[in-house]
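G., the chain you wanted modeled:
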Amino acid sequence: MSLLQLDIEELELEGLEPAGRFEFARGLESELARLVLDGGVPAGLLAGRGALAPLAVAPPPAAAPADLGRAVARALYEGWR
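Predicted structure as tokens:
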């Protein structure tokens, strides 16, 4: 088994209450893990292109913090492909 460690240095979110940050992080982490397990490590990460331009994520209205985390994970993964 291989280990992949991904450190996100900065993630700026607008509209997320501080109380939801841990639920957001759990959603982000679990979705990124699922995406990497299902689709592999994105080529951009393998090539050392970890930094991305700002991403716009449009979650459904009144999305729970974990749902927002999963949506951000999908946007990050696609950005690294």
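The radius of gyration is 13 Å.

Shout if anything looks off.
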